[in-house]
Write a structure and sequence with these properties.
By secondary structure, the chain is of the alpha/beta class. It has eleven helices and eight strands.
Length: 276
């Protein structure tokens, strides 16, 4: 690894998701983290698979940086048996990779509901994910179900944190709370407090209300989310006892136009200055 141009912070539980550099070689993304001064990160399973699982694992282990989650996703809807086979295979490999790099968590989404009602889709998800949940437990890896915006219905039918928490309870898994997708949710802090023990990752990004496509995130301060309230809510989560990572996820056209390293660098500085 090349020498750092910025001192890397190793005593914080803040992290950066490498979604914005998902197409880069893993070593290049890790070098970038070192330059911006971030020691903890989440990495996409798709990135590791594209490069080759074994090579990606070796580079992460050699980097000296700390992975906090592998983002496995779920790109299948009810009725797509081939898609589900593929999804569960990638998630299983993600669990193995997380164990090999000492990442405590694998995150995923619920998958699409297809023609099913919410309740029917939840029952189907419980059946589909049950072997994966058992496998993760055997390997000592936590699973975390992520909430999404409703526009992401191809990969998820749980869009509120409340609904995501309900499905997570049925599955017997934890939660990734994406505040970017939930900042307008009714009773959000009550839901978080009621499910505090299940939360494994809290994620931050900024949003512009004019956006009608995804992925489309902005550096905190460049969008329309009321950041003073967001920071206050994060502080409340901390005060309630949450000690897991607070993760910055940026990706989309605005990030690409600026350049991921510049955008992530600015976002990281914002996180270090404002997130308790």
């Amino acid at each position: 690894m090349p020498s750092s141009t910025t001192d890397v912070s190793s005593d914080t539980d803040l992290s950066v998701c490498l979604a914005a550099t998902a197409s880069w070689p893993v070593a290049d993304s890790l070098d970038m983290l070192t330059r911006i001064g971030c020691a903890r990160f989440g990495i996409l399973a798709a990135t590791m698979e594209r490069q080759g699982w074994d090579d990606a694992i070796a580079e992460i282990r050699e980097s000296g940086l700390r992975p906090v989650f592998v983002a496995g996703g779920c790109h299948a809807a009810h009725g797509d048996d081939h898609g589900w086979d593929r999804t569960l295979s990638v998630l299983t490999r993600s669990i193995d990779a997380a164990a090999e790099i000492d990442a405590p968590t694998v995150t995923f989404t619920s998958g699409g509901s297809g023609a099913l009602s919410w309740e029917e889709a939840a029952d189907a998800a419980a059946d589909r994910f049950a072997p994966l949940v058992s496998y993760a437990a055997a390997r000592g890896i936590g699973l975390a179900l992520e909430n999404t915006m409703s526009i992401r219905s191809a990969i998820s039918f749980t869009h509120s944190v409340a609904d995501t928490a309900e499905l997570a309870r049925r599955l017997g898994v934890g939660l990734m709370v994406d505040l970017y997708s939930a900042w307008q949710e009714r009773g959000l802090m009550t839901t978080i407090a009621d499910n505090l023990g299940a939360i494994r990752v809290v994620q931050i990004g900024d949003h512009r209300t004019s956006a009608t496509s995804v992925p489309n995130r902005w550096v905190p301060g460049d969008g329309d989310i009321p950041l003073d309230r967001l920071v206050r809510e994060v502080r409340e989560v901390r005060d309630a006892g949450y000690r897991g990572p607070i993760d910055l996820e940026l990706l989309g056209p605005a990030i690409d136009d600026e350049g991921p390293e510049s955008a992530l660098g600015r976002g990281w500085k914002w996180m270090c200055a404002h997130v308790p």
